[in-house]
Amino acid sequence: MVNGELVNQKFITSAIGSLPHKNYDCALSFSRKLDIPVLFELPQLNPKHSLIGQLENLRISDHQKRLELYQDRINLMTIDKKSEDRLCIHLPGPDLLLMQYNDDPHAYQNSRSNLLQTAGELWAMIPNCLLCFDCPSIEFVNEDDLLEFFDGLRKKFPNINWGLHCCGRPALSTIKKIAPSFFSFDLYQFREELEQLDSFLKEFRKQSHFVFIGVYPTDKKNSYDEKLVISFLNRMLMTPHEIPIVLTPSCGLSGFTEEECDEVLSILEKVKRQMNRD
Fold first, then answer.
1. Rounded CA gap, 88 and 38, in Å?
2. Strands 162-166 and 130-134
3. Which domains does the chain have, with CATH numbers?
4. Tell me: the pLDDT tens digits for 61-71?
């Protein structure tokens, strides 16, 4: 899922979709500084890039029109083919569909079907990309409904590399049942459950799965806890693995300024250098 040069590192960097930039060129420049670039979302420039906008896009029955939301950014990101093998694309998760259409089963089924189709078509466009379902409310919806969606995804597209991004505190038992190819989470949400989290991640990584750790909190900009981060990452190093650990902000950066985004990236790079040196 990443190139050979990155696999030789213990820690690499990425981000979570949304950015505050006002134009594509600046967002592209930021994204390409990451070891795993993201298909950036710019909700301040285009409201359709927000999760609500993406949910509305899933109501469109014409699949070509749905893909137009992603096509221009994909063309820009892959124009030189350098990012194609390791581009991360974020999509709304089924928990958002379940909450949005709780009282409208027909609308849910249509959007669910369109989300599955969109995931498959994006994968067909960039076969080695990472499809990440943003699931901010996963702990508030029925587990069986989640399993039904992801089982359907797995059966329909068995070769897709797909994962979850959870900015809340999901039950790790639920993540285990869903069995994604990679798991992205906010470290600060598990501050009181570090032992359980460490045990879960050790088993998860045995399946050759990526782990994206949100080491910089985006809900409280001034609460970065270096001691917590370094201590937990050192704990992760106690179980050697050939697949690198991915360092990210805990969620999207659209609420930050562009200058603050650069500061967050500097912190991620600093942690990466320190941990790769140790």
1. 5
2. parallel
3. 4-277 (3.20.20.210)
4. 999 999 999 99
